[in-house]
Design a protein that fits this description.
Helix content: over 70%
Oligomer: single chain
Strand content: under 5%
Order of helices and strands: HHHH
Structural class: mainly alpha
């Protein structure tokens, strides 16, 4: 029966450590912006395509697509 009390105490200590880590990360701003990082990778190619002339854009787009297929 004493092992149950020991495991209960250990689990409460672990839970408190994780709760403290969560509170610390919220205080440091870890979860302030959850939307932008998830969609940034979707629009990364558009940022690359917007540089240079339209002929450069078309060539770069073709090059990017062929590079992706070879990987």
């Amino acid at each position: 029966m004493s092992i149950i009390y020991m495991l209960l105490a250990i689990s409460v200590v672990v839970a408190l450590v994780f709760f403290a880590a969560f509170i610390f990360s919220v205080g440091k701003g870890q979860y302030d912006d959850t939307y932008t990082p998830s969609v940034r990778m979707l629009f990364e190619d558009e940022l690359v395509k917007n540089t240079g002339s339209s002929a450069d854009k078309n060539q770069q787009s073709i090059t990017n697509h062929s590079d992706r297929k070879s990987k």
